[in-house]
Amino acid sequence: MKVRSPAAASAPDDVARLGKELEHAEGVVRLLCTADLCLKNGDDAALYALGFSQEHVDDLRSRSDGNPGYPAYAMRNARWQVQWLRKRLLLAKQMVAIL
Predict the structure, then answer these.
(1) What average pLDDT does the structure give for the chain?
(2) Which domain holds residue 45?
(3) How many whole angstroms separate alpha carbon 65 and alpha carbon 52?
């Protein structure tokens, strides 16, 4: 009889969970990129259509460094999160394949 470790028992659940997290993170990156472009082009109507409030748009426009849009670190962190989740998902799929 093959004994499965607790980590192995959760591997299929990890694949599903990580897949959902990756899908969400990719959506966040798309939203940030779209919103950033709208901010730089001055397209407030598109931002409102994306679900941004007037207060949020004003906040993004009045950044202290004078550059409208999201800070570079926010975009970088969102992209890093997607890369990290892709790697974790690949490892989880490999774990399922081994079992």
Answers:
(1) 86
(2) 6-98
(3) 21
